[in-house]
Amino acid sequence: MQMFEKSLTRATCKPEHIQLTRRSLYEQYIADHRSWVVAYSGGKDSTLLLQLVYEMLLEFGPEGTKPIDIVASDTRVEAPNVEDYLADRLSRIESHARANGLPVHVHRVQPTPEQSFWGNLIGKGYPSPTRWFRWCTTKMKIKPSRAVIDGIVRKHGGVVLLLGTRIDESAGRAQRMEGRATNSRGLNPHGEIPDALVMTPIADWTTDQVWEYLFTHNPPPWGGTHDFMLDLYRQASGGECPVVLDLNTPSCGGSRFGCWTCTVVKEDKSMRGFIDSGAAWMRPLNEFRDWLKSIREETSMRDGIRRNDSIGPGPFNSEARKTILRRLFELEKTVGRRLIEDAEISYIQQQWSDKFDVTDSALAIAREFGREVGSLKVTSEDASSDLALIEELAPRFEVQSIWATDLYRLITERYPSLDSPSSHQQLLDDVIKVVENAVRQADRTEPAA
């Protein structure tokens, strides 16, 4: 700690905003034992924040022992060049931290199949997101990131969440940031994450100051360079997509780096910028995105009953979902890149089987395009969590947990796949046996009249 304190004292030649931020980071770091969580998106602001924290940790040396978790959100439908860049940065950071014995842990947060874009759009039939029905933000960003951060909080008993938000970004952002109540250390409690305090170390930096630091402190300490990121900004002419932890954080759109499937905006300017700058291979992705946006308004593609049973445009109908899945596989062939994971395909089949499909159509469509996919498997961790939930909920509904557990194990262990038509009838017969046995047991235990 003394070495870093001396470094701060010597750094009087640095501009004032850098001195103030470095001093603030140092004081907050030694103020308590709360671990730190740095929200990282790969864009300029979060890169600057992470670099300042990382440089501080390196200067601390062996005395810098407080855990620092880096949380980066990958929705699985990021613009491909941005997704590749983020994966490369995280890999470099993780390798460098490990090699230098730094207490840094990297989390590349991805949505589960049921939270994913394709799981909801093709599996459940959700129409592509709009400004009024932006289901993607909560499912693909907030819930996955929150789950990881909640786990870090449980492990350490509390965290300081470092965000790269800046007042200079917009008038609305400035008003929200300035309106938050802070404690004596200048931190404010996170509105939705218990035991989490929020710190915004570069809040007062201007955009020019951010760029100047990144240009003059290139390469970053974890290796590689900032050159590719700077080139991405030149191509997209936009800002970065933030790590979204609550609904008050603006989602991506407009010219920001965002999901290539984003149908919230009229035109994806960042994707258009990439294409115009030479990434012509992305054009089919942009055309597919435009098609997704257009078909949500076609009544022939939608059910006539909403999910709440009211009359009106409901989810995509079964034929529309099959069409979207088939065209997605065709798009994979065109761009030469995997766009949907096996687990998502299995989840889609699970949803279809539950609602309308008895012939495993999603798996058959995948097979047409050379994707041999099995049904979604339940991990031992998932099973333990599910069984604990059954034990908790069964008494509330006056159900014997043993029978609910039998039905659960029947589905997950004996019939994890319904590949053959006969397996559907076998499953039904076994379910009837479990229910009949439960009824008999209940009759035996009821007191005589």
TrEMBL record:
UniProt keyword Transferase, yes or no: yes
GO terms, molecular function: transferase activity
Stored InterPro entries: PAPS_reduct_dom (IPR002500), Rossmann-like_a/b/a_fold (IPR014729), Sulfate_adenylyltrnsfr_sub2 (IPR050128), SulphurTrfase_DndC (IPR017598)
Entry keyword set: Transferase
Pfam family for this entry, one: PAPS_reduct
PANTHER family: PHOSPHOADENOSINE PHOSPHOSULFATE REDUCTASE, SULFATE ADENYLYLTRANSFERASE SUBUNIT 2
Protein name: DNA phosphorothioation system sulfurtransferase DndC
Organism: Thiorhodococcus minor
Biological classification of the source: Bacteria, Pseudomonadati, Pseudomonadota, Gammaproteobacteria, Chromatiales
